[in-house]
Amino acid sequence: MSGLYIHIPFCKQACSYCDFYFVTRQEYKQDFVDELIREIHSKKDTRFTEETVRTIYFGGGTPSLLTPQQVESILDAIQYVFKVEPEEITFEMNPDDVTKEFLSGLKSAGINRASMGVQSFNPELLKFMHRAHSSEEAFRCLELLQASKFNVFTVDLIYGNPGQSLQSLEQDIDTILQFDPPHISAYSLTIEPQTRLGKQVKLGRIVPPEDDTVARHFDLVVEKLGEAGILQYEVSNYAKPGKEALHNSNYWSHVNYLGLGPGAHSFWWDEDGKSAKRWSNKADLKSYFTGSWNEPFEEEHLDHTNLAEERLMLGLRTRSGLSLQELATRYDFSFNPKQQEYLQQLEIQEKAKIGDRIQLTTKGLKIADAILLDLITI
Question: Dihedral sign, CA of 27, 30, 35, 36?
């Protein structure tokens, strides 16, 4: 089993917090689709086509700037080259791009899961984030999505914004819940150095909220969504039972995935099952048009120790945690005495459950990054 990630690099404008690769030159969209199809065809009869593809994810950028016809041509190429038995084909979209006809076209093309980048309904927060859509467009879009043939969709929410009150966050959550979403991704605002937001923070023009404030936001998200039957299954992801995102779960479980498009990342196990490689395409559309996808731009070789630490960090971000047997048999990993003592302290503090599996509780997931850093550096 493997997954495909398709990076669509077009955006109308730059969101203040985003550090993903994108371009705003819309006139290159068809040229890009043609080149992407060439990249897809280049994988025919390679090791990447030996496994059955179960999940496909269109991310970006803004995939919804493509037409349903362009999306269909990409999926046709994938079907021709790969062995595809899709359980989930996800498509990211922005509210300002969505119409009833657009959703119908995507469904006809084969998309079965929509991911809607709402982030907030608060006009001031949308302006702060430099989002292209309005709160009215977000509301209308969710109405269309709820009435569409998409049985599974996710709504993105960002909390921990400077100046964002608990009341404002609660209003956002309540508005989203009106549409009975099967899945919500709720992210704490991350300040990346090279983004517009990162530069404003560095200049002192924006002051990030205190950790205690962000923690209260997190608690409110977990509580409100839990009351609605939308349960936390990963630090930033919440779903009704059975509606968890399969593609993202692949990342956390070290399943092979292939990235296509400029800036896309890939991960693939070596034949020995003891090591793996991670690599990316160059994040540059012009060089992509000249076939730069033929060679990895950045490549990282992961040995057993690297893979064990990474699996530990990814797995403990999920509610299901990690099997000790899997760590021992697949990664030849066991905890040293100091790590065992640290884990016991986490259990005493009710931040973790230790048995055949190691699982962080809600209290532990709240500070997962700090716990994981402590654990691997002991």
Answer: positive
